[in-house]
Write a structure and sequence with these properties.
The chain is α+β, with helices and mostly antiparallel strands. It has eight helices and 15 strands. Strands 7, 8, 9, 10, 11, 12, 13, 14 and 15 form a nine-stranded mixed beta sheet that branches. Strands 2-1-6-5-3-4 form a six-stranded antiparallel beta sheet. Helix 5 links the parallel strand 7 and strand 8. Helix 6 crosses helix 8. The longest helix is centred in the C-terminal third of the chain and has 17 residues.
């Protein structure tokens, strides 16, 4: 069990780790986060995650809490102190601590930072991938800047609960045009009836998933036909395969949607191949 957290410059036991009651992340969701997968104790997709972190902070006008080089050192030290080899690293950066006021605090208010590490059972993850998972659909009700990875995740949490209550692991948001945007904590993909790999383009209101971006490159290098365009729930049901991607799920086959089978109702060969190729890529590029 991981035991150490990094909180605003200090490594402390998770049992006593605290943040201030006027941290703006707590009071306003005025914060962003990133999650790295760990392979062999190394951070996967480092460039993509750091670039997205910097972009999210920039969009919200929150300064980087330290240089990328220094942050890398702190992330790795948190991993080392927790003795975690296979797992996830969670980073949260808020606008800082200040008396509660909707407008931004003084410009010299330092950002607040928290880092935690958790273990992942890779054998259990592979077993789940071999069976596939279920998703449910739910109306899109999130704010219009899902491209920023903020901690304002109440609609996502409600969607996840909807999924859990029916034995599914993920919820796919469906917009006013009747098209799937993404999952509550993942990007959504299908292998359509023509064999093309499809996922929503980033001109839509979706998170620019780092695993998604890496997998697009991996798929193209593998010679697969890739299309960044939307699909409807019915197209998903009619597809050959479907899957989700994210730092926690990697590439995870989806075999049921709203209780109905997708394709054969079993994980397909494309998702299995992409999962293996992505893991190989992630391990090779981790730092």
């Amino acid at each position: 069990m991981s035991r150490i957290a990094y909180v605003n410059g200090r490594f402390v036991a998770k049992t006593v780790a605290v943040v201030h009651i006027e941290d703006r992340g707590y009071q306003f969701a005025d914060a962003v986060y990133e999650v790295w997968a760990l392979f062999g104790g190394k951070l996967s997709d480092p460039e993509g995650h750091f670039a997205r972190l910097e972009r999210s902070l920039g969009e919200l006008r929150i300064p980087m809490p330290m240089s990328r080089k220094a942050l890398t050192v702190v992330l790795k030290e948190t991993v080392r102190r927790n003795r975690v080899s296979e797992g996830l690293v969670y980073l949260q950066v808020s606008r800082g601590v200040a008396p509660r006021d909707h407008a931004f605090p003084a410009a010299d208010t330092p950002p607040a930072i928290v880092i935690t590490v958790s273990r992942v059972d890779r054998e259990a993850s592979e077993a789940r991938a071999s069976k596939g998972v279920a998703v449910v659909t739910t109306p899109e009700n999130r704010w219009g800047r899902c491209d920023i990875k903020t901690v304002g995740l109440l609609p996502n949490a409600m969607a996840k609960q909807k999924a859990r209550e029916v034995g599914a692991v993920e919820a796919w948001f469906v917009d006013d045009l009747g098209l799937v945007t993404e999952g509550a904590s993942s990007n959504a993909w299908i292998v359509d009836r023509d064999g093309a790999l499809r996922t929503r383009d980033t001109n839509a209101n979706i998170l620019r998933g780092v695993t998604r971006l890496s997998l697009l490159d991996v798929a193209r290098q593998a010679g697969l036909k890739v299309e960044e365009r939307p699909f409807s729930p019915q197209e998903a049901l009619d597809a050959q395969e479907a899957f989700i991607t994210g730092a926690g799920t990697l590439v995870l086959p989806v075999v049921l949607m709203d209780g109905k089978p997708i394709g054969s109702g079993k994980p397909g060969p494309v998702a299995a191949r992409l999962r293996a190729l992505y893991i190989e890529h992630a391990k090779a590029t981790a730092v």
